[in-house]
Design goal:
globular, 8% strand, alpha+beta, 3-stranded antiparallel beta sheet
Length: 411
């Protein structure tokens, strides 16, 4: 079924649909789980929601198996969202024609393939030693300056910025500017115009950088994209969209790791166990990734291309659908006692990085950064602790990706 044949608005017989719940996308502190999402999970595996922006309502899928099914099912299309004012959290993130996040296979697959080499295990391992060296320098400076310190400003923010810029091939002198743009894009607090302007400026920057590297044989992302454009495999517009998406995603590690260390330092028994048993750290990081609610509300929507029966309801062609990976990671049928942090949980098939064709390409890189941060901070700063009570740590307001604005620490 083509995009043109889907219905333009959600429709269903009156009286047969679950009620539409308003979902404000609350600014929540720490790792507090969204109470509205908790209620939605109790209401049923497939419910209906209305977010603060856009129009109408959308289905919300929360059960683990259903989330993975929809994420991998070609009957649910990202591309079909184009031109639709689907209800959404942020005033911006209205999909543009050619936006990478709203491509479907095979176009999405073709574009992802152009940079796949940088995000394979081998590609990520290529930056491990340089990343470790950059992190060691940051911690050297932290220890030299002494306590108190803001862990976000000194380590958790500059480290992932340096790593993603290294992988992307962004010159050192441009990294501060890229970071400033990303902060505006990842926030709904400044309004749509400011966020869209930042996205436009970042896009223009990458268009220039990719254009300069069409003949490059280097292995960084912009060089790979430049080479793919030069060979005619992808269009410049597509390459720029992917570069922006990867740069933003790479910096999101700042907020994710901020939540991770806020949690570890708020519950010192967890940090102490990781110090005493370094062998469990890989499993522990997976558990923390499962447990931490890394975003507010939901991300990007899909449109059903035909009627689909799911979770006891009929999703009709043309109706918008959201997946909650946060809810899937708390599904008790997959993760026994999901509200408990079990550092040795096995198996742990979490979907913190998504699932299916749109699985986060930087998932392995983000995991590498988490491993390096946990190792370095717990081993090199053994007395690391919060300098204020956990509930006094300021968290970002209006952020799409949750995280502390500052993380005051002592040691």
């Amino acid at each position: 079924m083509t995009e043109e044949t889907v219905r333009s608005e959600p429709t269903a017989p009156a009286g047969t649909l679950p009620p539409v719940r308003q979902w404000p996308g609350l600014d929540l502190p720490g790792t507090e789980f969204d109470p509205v999402l908790t209620e939605l999970m109790r209401d049923g595996p497939v419910t209906r929601v209305q977010l603060p922006n856009g129009e109408g309502w959308a289905w919300l899928v929360t059960r683990y198996d259903d989330v993975r099914t929809v994420a991998n099912d070609p009957r649910f299309s990202r591309r079909a969202v184009l031109g639709r004012q689907v209800t959404r959290l942020a005033p911006h993130f209205v999909p543009d024609r050619g936006a990478v996040g709203f491509l479907d296979p095979p176009d999405h697959t073709r574009l992802r393939r152009s940079v796949a080499a940088a995000f394979t295990a081998k590609g990520v391992e290529r930056v491990r030693e340089k990343a470790r060296a950059m992190l060691d320098e940051l911690i050297d400076e932290l220890l030299q300056d002494g306590p108190p310190a803001d862990l976000t400003a000194t380590v958790l923010s500059p480290f992932p910025i340096a790593v993603i810029c290294e992988l992307m091939g962004v010159p050192v002198g441009d990294r501060h500017t890229l970071h400033a743009w990303t902060q505006l894009i990842l926030s709904s607090a400044h309004g749509r115009q400011v966020s869209e302007q930042a996205k436009g400026e970042m896009s223009a920057y990458f268009a220039d950088l990719i254009g300069l590297r069409e003949d490059s044989a280097a292995e960084d992302v912009t060089s790979l994209l430049g080479a793919a454009v030069g060979r005619g495999e992808v269009m410049l517009e597509e390459a720029v969209g992917l570069a922006v998406l990867l740069q933003i995603g790479g910096e999101a590690v700042t907020n994710n790791s901020g939540q991770m260390f806020h949690l570890l330092l708020s519950r010192p028994e967890l940090a102490e166990r990781l110090r005493a048993e370094p062998g469990i750290r890989p499993k522990a990081i997976d558990e923390l990734l499962r447990y931490i609610p890394h975003r507010n509300a939901v991300g990007l929507s899909r449109i059903a291309l035909q009627d689909v029966q799911l979770g006891g309801v009929r999703i009709r062609a043309g109706e918008p659908v959201y997946l909650s990976y946060l809810a899937a990671n708390r599904d008790p049928d997959v993760f026994p006692d999901p509200q408990t942090i079990d550092l040795s949980r096995t198996p742990n098939p979490h979907v913190a990085f998504g699932f299916g064709p749109h699985y986060c390409p930087g998932g392995m890189l983000a995991r590498l950064e988490s491993e390096l941060l946990v190792d370095a901070l717990l081993d090199r700063v053994p007395g690391l602790r919060l300098a204020v009570p956990p509930d006094e740590v300021p968290f970002r307001k209006g952020a799409l990706i949750r995280g502390p604005e500052a993380l005051p620490v002592r040691w």
